[in-house]
Structure formats: C-alpha cells, structure tokens
Amino acid sequence: MRNKVITMCSRDYFQYGQKLLDTRHIVDADFVCYGPDLSEDQIEILMAHDIQYKTVNKDIWDTWMQSLKFQFIMDEIDADLDAVNGKYGVTFVDWDTYFLKDWKHIFKDKFCLGITVRPEYIDHNKMYRAWANGGVIFASAGCGVTMCKRALIDIGNGTSAQFPEYNKIWKTLEEGRTPEKTHYRTNKRWWGDQIYLSAIVMHNHHLVSDDYGLNIKLFDCKQYNNMWEETPDTYIMHLKEKSGAPGSLKDGKK
Length: 254
Description:
By secondary structure, this protein is of the alpha/beta class. It has helices spanning 18-23, 40-48, 58-64, 68-78, 81-84, 119-123, 143-157, 165-174, 192-203, 221-224, and strands at residues 2-8, 30-35, 51-55, 88-93, 97-99, 113-117, 132-139, 216-220, 236-238.
C-alpha cells in the first residue's frame, strides 16, 4: 500500500518546515505541497527534497486557508487512478510537522477518514473545539472524497445538518468570554477544519467501535500528531511553529 502526503505553505511560513524537509526521506510516499506564493528558491528546495509544488489562487487561499485541506485531499485522490482504485491512501500534514517513522501500514485498514484526536479531552468532555486536531488527516478514495466534499459544503454554509455538533462547537467560540477568544464561522480561513473534525468525533463518541458508524477511524495524537515529546510509538510530530531557527528557510536558503 502506497501513501501520498499533502502539505501546504505560504512564502512567509516556509521557515517553519525545516524539520519536515530534514525527515522527508523517512516516509516512502509521493509528496505534494500547495501554496499561493512560494519564491523560485523555495520551490527549488522542495524539488531537491522530491516534493511537487502546486500553486493555489491567492484570493482563495486568503479566504479559505485551513479549510482548503479538504479540497487538497479531494484533488489528490481525483488526480490519480491508483487512488480511485484504492491502491494507496492520502495523508494531509501541516507544514510544521516532522516524521519519526513511516505510517503507510495504517491504510491496510478500511476507513474513509482518519482523524487524529486528543483522548484526554474526549474522556473529560472538555475543550470541544480540540477533540480533533486538523494538523494530520488520513483519507482513502471513494468515501473519503465524499466526506471531504460534504465538509467543504458545510463549512461554506456555516452549518451542518448531518453533524449538529458543528454548530454547538462554533457557538462556544462565537460567545467567547474575551475578544481574543471569540471567533466566527463566517471567517472560513481559521478553525473550520478542526471544528468540523471535532464535530464528527463528538457526534458518535459514545460508541466503542472504531468506525463510529461513518467508517471513521480515530488515531491518538500521541502517535500520529504529537505536540509534546517524541516517544517510541510516535510517527508524526507537530511543532506548532517551533521548527528550527526562525528565518532558516525564509528566503529559500537552508
């Protein structure tokens, strides 16, 4: 089973991907990076690490940025007949991640969408918006495309009939106790991806089965989206903008 890895980055954010580039060789996969404005030097660095670059319209990027993850997953599955035939899975990772071990084995299991979750928040029924983490998403062909398409429609509409929890979580942000903690679903650029994934998890979190009735598989962030410390069980680390020295890649220089 093969794996295709998708990421996204703008010119000013490029500096935070040093460790992703340093560990790209660990993952046996085709890599694609989407972005609106990378410089020629930055694109050359991607090519040197065997990462394909695809340009995104700047206006669309500025309007939809984080929610575009679902579009990129759909595009990469649709772009390849092997994906349609189920011969490999697709992984989205944020640009400020890096890799300890290859995870392509997970696609031996049949699921539409794989969501990385924080069990400690789910178990204690707190921080609804952070039950899932949108920094790493796994998807398979067919039903994975269907779910991503549904996500884009619902985020665009600002509501979800299938997952009323989406509205419930947004309400906790739109009624923030302070201005800096207040966010609105009319802003498609931020939060939409993570809140939508958290809503899916919340919708069926009482079930024991991994597929949650929606062919969803949950992956513990400590293994596949770890923001704390490396462990023997960790595959993907997520630095949250802490990768390398600031400016190390900003101008396309290593």
